[in-house]
Amino acid sequence: YIPKDSPACIASIIPILHRLESNKQHKVLVVDDSATARRYLRSLLERQYLTVIEANNGEQALDMIRQEHDISLVITDYAMPERDGVSLIKELRKTWRSGQLAAIGLSASDENALTAKFLKAGANDFLKKPFNQEEFYCRLHSTLDILDSERRLYRLANQDYLTQSWNRRYFFEHALVRHHQGPRCLALLDIDHFKTINDRFGHHIGDMVLIDLAKRLENFFSDALVARFGGEEFCLLFGNSPQIFERRLAALMEDIAGAELTLMGHTVRYSVSLGMVNDDANIHDLIRRADHCLYQAKSSGRNRIVL
Ligand code: GH3
Ligand code: MG
Ligand code: MG
Ligand code: MG
């Protein structure tokens, strides 16, 4: 017996409070051909602060998953017209890993080995209907806990901590996956005299300049692959329209050079230099040559693009 206000009791509810708090960020898609079943699941999930949307068969569910982008979990019935739950999960696993989009199967069917069928298709878990409410919540929470950890791990492995930009590792993984797609544009960007900014204003303000740069890159190049390569150097990979790419790079440079940042009472200005290449060479060759262009941009006066 643990008294209600004892530290042990309080400690035991902290993980639950934490779970409920992060549930607010999750959207769950309930897939069932029975409106009654959907309504029941919705009420269970909404009590846990989850956002709920509904589909009445596997085919409709796939359309919604492809359109909405922000679904965390799919809870699906087995027997449904058009596409059953196992086939739905098999199909969505072609695009999303279980750490990106979780799936739980539910069924009242007595079909032999249905649990195995769901798990083999890629479900994170399975429950037989009618289920015990507490068991449902336990399985739901453990699935969401694992999803949260996987997403956190993914961010830790692929994002730069300071600027939230993608890191080098993410860049190469994605740049190499998209190889053999013909010519591409690549640019290397480096802040001019960044050491002087650190020396004059302190490292902390240097960090804020990097964050400012990452935000501007995101504003101008949300459709490109942008990564912090290290220090004050970023790499941008763009589709094949060198004219558009160069125009956007020029606009970014102008935006940066025209900005007057007020950082902790200091007025800070900075500029960047860029090296840009465009052809169908492999990614390592593009980078090597862009680096050479960047070197020329630096040695010919900075705050410019060299092609
Ligand atoms: P250039 O115009 O030739 O590029 O000169 P620069 O001073 O920008 O280049 P240099 O390579 O000499 O200096 C880069 C500096 O960037 C040195 C390093 O301390 C600083 N730096 C690297 N990473 C960080 C960071 O995360 N935060 C801060 N504040 N400074 C960093
Ligand atoms: Mg059904
Ligand atoms: Mg520099
Ligand atoms: Mg540098």
From TrEMBL:
Annotated positions of the 4-aspartylphosphate modification: D77
Superkingdom field: Bacteria
Enzyme Commission number(s) of this protein: 2.7.7.65
Ranges for domain Response regulatory: 27-144
Reactions mediated catalytically: 2 GTP = 3',3'-c-di-GMP + 2 diphosphate
Keywords in alphabetical order: Phosphoprotein
Domain called GGDEF: residue spans: 182-307
Protein known as: diguanylate cyclase
Organism: Photobacterium atrarenae
Phylogenetic classification of the source organism: Bacteria, Pseudomonadati, Pseudomonadota, Gammaproteobacteria, Vibrionales
